[in-house]
Amino acid sequence: MTKEMMLRFARPLLLTALRKADMVQVKDKVLTCEDDIPAAVERCWHDALSDLDVEVWGIAAGELLQDVNLLGTSVQGNVLRFVTEEGFRGDIICHDGAAEMECADSFWFVAVQALGKLLRRDYLISAHLSHMLLMETLVTQMMQRDQMYQTNYHRYGYAETLAYRQVDVTPYADLMTGDETYACIAEQLIRAALCREGSEKFFAIWRKYLAELQK
Question: pTM for the complete prediction?
Answer without folding.
Answer: 0.90
